[in-house]
Design a protein that fits this description.
Largest sheet of chain A: 6 strands, mixed
Oligomer: heterodimer
Shape of chain A: elongated
Shape of chain B: globular
Largest sheet of chain B: 2 strands, antiparallel
Number of strands of chain A: 21
Strand content of chain A: 25-35%
Number of strands of chain B: 2
Distance between the termini of chain A: 46 Å
Order of helices and strands of chain A: EEEHEEEHHHEHEHEEHHEEEEEEEEEEEH
Radius of gyration of chain B: 23 Å
Strand content of chain B: under 5%
Strand order of the largest sheet of chain A: 6-7-8-3-9-10
CATH topology of chain B: MetI-like fold
Helix content of chain A: 25-40%
CATH architecture of chain B: Orthogonal Bundle
Strand order of the largest sheet of chain B: 1-2
Number of domains of chain B: 1
CATH class of chain B: Mainly Alpha
Largest interface: A-B, 24 and 19 residues
Number of helices of chain A: 9
CATH superfamily of chain B: MetI-like
Radius of gyration of chain A: 24 Å
């Protein structure tokens, strides 16, 4: 168990293509950190640099109090779960689990004890003598987890471990991994492109974009206060509605409605509103946006309405029974209104949050 | 495996399309093979005037013949050594290539060239290299105090044919090993690296077992190759000598039949060889395609 400290880490591939740049991140002991971002954002590269599978070209990575830049993967005291599980196909489950321990010269009875313990925790005791090809996707996933936990490493590294599973199993496994990690208290770094997985599993989220950290925070913090339009759209499903608006004299005009935006400099802005932050009845003195219903998606627990609002498409979610008609007025929750400047960065009109509701 | 089925409008068309291939197979393979089997039961007199049916006598005589037993032993040594040399050197080359990222295409192309060389040419090539009078290798070997002469020394002759035959086969094995290595997911080796296995340990415990289907397939192919396709190599280098030291079965078939004109015995030998190749083919299909998967 150890903290992982990443200081000014960068990776430049031969030919001068920067994959990851200027990453600073402190992962606390026992914390579950999720690196999330679209493909090509450098999240896997960063993870592989921590693992020692990619060379670190700039900065330092520390696991515990050791700088590990020059250490072999085996010497870093980490375990990794791969996307394709990377189980050794010619070995039985038991041999797969023991392999890492054997290589380290662990005594025989200690190996047996740890493998049996892992098998018990993961409920794979019945398949110990099978080969990986005789296992289902979920069972293979567990064996891959088992291979990580028998080693009792300082940190677990997960590289999109659930993306080969079907949707239902993914939900189950995500809960299991999280429960197991809490129980073992092992520091974990988890890479995924799935924002839902990131939201549900993380103690802290790290949103990456083009090799740089865009935002770090708890899932709710990132969800409620995205620092940029990129994060706003990436986190949350359906993603946040972004509409173009104009600020003049402390008020923002968007889709024929005017809302207070005290202290925000005049000019063009992007107005962000999450689908769940619309109401069909005015609360207080709020102005509404005239909207024309285009399409309805039924999700069972809720229904999503797709509207044309001032030339833009807006998604709003409502409770399952909500009646929707063609011409309606949408009233946004002003406490949840996000403003982004021309540089796509968040603008916080501080008084708005306190008083305007 | 699902194969695509084609429906023909005319029921004779598929037979017509198959006919050329079937004709080639029947005329150049089945018919001569049948003739060999028939001939192996016959014996001609010394002047070729009279042919009589002798049953299995040609076969029983073979196994009482010291020269034939010798040829069996020579074939065994030659096949196993050639296959081992060809497999090991091609695996080393493939491993080296697998570590090289840049210009691996160039290496692959160059390493495949020997396969395009006709066996007889390969034989002559090595015959020149090892020629006791003008060859470069005997010259170099003499400097380290070894007097190479494959025309006199049995061991030298065997070494020469093994090297020449193996060299021809390395390209073929190399291609299969490269493909085999590339089909091993990188994450497997990374997982093993994290599991604390060094490069050597990784090779023995992960790479080699995962290559075993390829290796077994190549082993069978190589043994078949050394038993049958090395005729030209032998003929161009040692001609089976000295003193029968490189007289492998397939060369003996030729030597007894076409030089010695003992057609019955030669036919019996080729039938035995045919039996061996059929056995090897069955092994290959039964085991390679099914059992040797991990």
């Amino acid at each position: 168990m150890a903290a992982i400290t990443i200081e000014n880490v960068g990776k430049t591939y031969a030919g001068g293509v920067p994959a990851v740049q200027g990453i600073d991140l402190n992962i606390r002991d026992g914390e579950f950190v999720v690196l999330v971002g679209p493909s090509g954002c450098g999240k896997s590269t960063l993870l592989r640099m921590i693992a020692g599978l990619e060379e670190i070209t700039e900065g330092t990575v520390r696991i515990g109090d050791r700088v590990v830049n020059r250490l072999e993967p085996a010497e870093r005291d980490i375990a990794m779960v791969f996307q394709n599980y990377a189980l050794y196909p010619h070995m039985t489950v038991r041999q797969n689990l023991s392999y890492g321990l054997k290589n380290r010269g662990t005594p025989r009875d200690e190996i047996v004890r740890r493998v049996d313990e892992a098998a018990r925790i993961l409920e794979i005791g019945a398949y110990l003598d099978r080969k990986p090809r005789a296992l289902s996707g979920g069972q293979r996933q567990r064996v891959a987890m088992g291979r990580a936990i028998v080693r009792e490493p300082s940190a677990f590294l997960f590289d999109e471990p659930l993306s080969n599973l079907d949707a239902k199993l993914r939900v189950t496994m995500r809960g299991e991994i999280r429960t197991l990690q809490r129980r073992l208290g092992t520091t974990s770094v988890y890479v995924t492109h799935d924002q839902l997985e990131a939201m549900t599993m993380a103690d802290r989220l790290v949103v990456l974009r083009q090799g740089r950290i865009e935002q770090v925070g708890t899932p709710l913090d990132v969800y409620r206060n995205p620092v940029s339009t990129f994060v706003a759209q990436f986190i949350g499903s359906p993603s946040m509605n972004l509409m173009s608006g104009t600020v003049r004299a402390g008020e923002v005009r968007v889709a024929d409605a005017v809302y207070p935006a005290p202290g925000v400099p005049d000019g063009a802005v992007t107005v962000g509103l999450r689908p769940e932050d619309f109401a069909l009845v005015p609360g207080g003195a709020r102005a509404g946006m005239p909207a024309r219903l285009v399409n309805i998606e039924e999700l069972g627990s809720q229904r999503l309405g797709y509207f044309r609002v001032g030339g833009e498409t807006v998604v709003a979610s409502f409770p399952a029974g909500q009646v929707l008609s063609t011409e309606m007025t949408l009233y946004p929750d002003l406490s949840r209104l996000h403003l982004f400047g021309a540089d796509e960065r968040r603008i916080d009109p501080a008084p708005l949050r306190a008083g305007a509701v | 495996m699902q194969t695509k089925r084609t429906i023909f409008g005319n029921r004779w068309l598929p037979y017509l399309l198959l006919a050329p291939q079937l004709a080639v197979t029947v005329i150049f393979f089945l018919w001569p093979a049948g003739q060999a089997v028939w001939q192996s039961f016959l014996r001609e007199d010394a002047f070729g005037l009279k042919t009589s049916f002798v049953g299995l006598s040609n076969y029983t005589r073979l196994f009482d013949n010291a020269e034939y037993i010798n040829a069996l032993k020579v074939t065994l040594v030659f096949s196993v050594s050639t296959a081992a040399l060809a497999l090991i050197s091609s695996l080393l080359l493939a491993l080296a290539l697998d570590r090289t990222i840049r210009s691996s295409r160039v290496y692959t192309t160059l390493l495949v060239w020997p396969y395009a060389v006709a066996p007889a040419i390969a034989g002559v090539l090595w015959w020149f290299i090892f020629n006791p009078t003008i060859g470069i290798m005997p010259y170099l070997l003499e400097r380290v105090g070894y007097d190479w002469n494959h025309a006199l020394q049995k061991g030298d002759a065997m070494a020469l044919v093994i090297i020449a035959a193996a060299w021809k086969q390395i390209s073929y094995n190399f291609l299969f090993f490269v493909a085999g290595l590339q089909s091993i997911p990188a994450s497997m080796r990374e997982a093993a690296a994290i599991d604390g296995a060094g490069p050597v340990k990784r090779f023995w415990t992960i790479t080699l077992p995962l290559l075993s289907p390829t290796t077994f397939f190549l082993l069978v192919v190589n043994v078949v190759y050394t038993m049958f396709d090395t005729f030209a190599v032998i003929d161009a280098t040692t001609g089976g000598g000295p003193a029968q030291a490189t007289m492998i079965l397939v060369y003996k078939v030729y030597d007894d039949g076409f030089i010695g004109l003992n057609l019955g015995s030669s036919a019996a030998q080729s039938v035995i060889l045919m039996g061996i190749v059929i056995a090897l083919t069955i092994i290959q299909f039964r085991y390679v395609e099914r059992r040797v998967t991990y």
